[in-house]
């Protein structure tokens, strides 16, 4: 199912996608989030338990601070590069996606996203950060 402007505005009770700061639509069979291009100011996205297979569209959410994508279908850990341009992203939950089974998954994500403070509901420890920066 494609995430639509109407669905978002109905859920948030707002009139404009640019005004959306927080969106929670878990468990909706969503597989297309291209509408995120219209939401540059969103700060928190809870889209767990859906069918999202790529992180590409999230790169448009420049103010994103927290992204919850547990139990989706993201295959390629290389997609994490789409999140590199999000300077405020501090919380990411990607567990229970195929990409989370990649060897050294946690270290790779922490290395790619230096502003992360929490990954998969677990604090990023200073020693983890130091290890990936070596």
UniProtKB/TrEMBL annotation:
Taxonomic lineage: Eukaryota, Viridiplantae, Chlorophyta, core chlorophytes, Chlorodendrophyceae
Transmembrane segments: none
Domain of life of the source: Eukaryota
InterPro entries, per the entry: Leu-rich_rpt (IPR001611), LRR_dom_sf (IPR032675)
Keywords per UniProt: Leucine-rich repeat, Repeat
Location of this chain's protein in the cell: Cytoplasm, Cytoskeleton, Cilium axoneme
Name of the protein in its database record: U2A'/phosphoprotein 32 family A C-terminal domain-containing protein
A Pfam family recorded for this sequence: LRR_9
A GO cellular component annotation in the UniProt record: ciliary basal body
């Amino acid at each position: 199912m494609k995430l639509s402007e109407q669905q978002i505005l109905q859920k948030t009770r707002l009139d404009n996608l640019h005004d959306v700061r927080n969106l929670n639509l878990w468990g909706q069979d969503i597989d297309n989030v291209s509408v995120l291009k219209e939401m540059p100011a969103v700060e928190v996205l809870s889209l767990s338990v859906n069918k999202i297979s790529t992180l590409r569209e999230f790169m448009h959410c420049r103010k994103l601070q927290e992204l919850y994508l547990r139990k989706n279908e993201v295959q390629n850990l290389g997609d994490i590069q789409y999140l590199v341009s999000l300077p405020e992203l501090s919380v990411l939950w990607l567990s229970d996606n195929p990409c989370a089974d990649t060897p050294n998954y946690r270290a790779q994500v922490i290395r790619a996203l230096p502003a992360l403070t929490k990954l998969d509901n677990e604090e990023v420890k200073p020693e983890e950060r130091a290890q990936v920066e070596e």
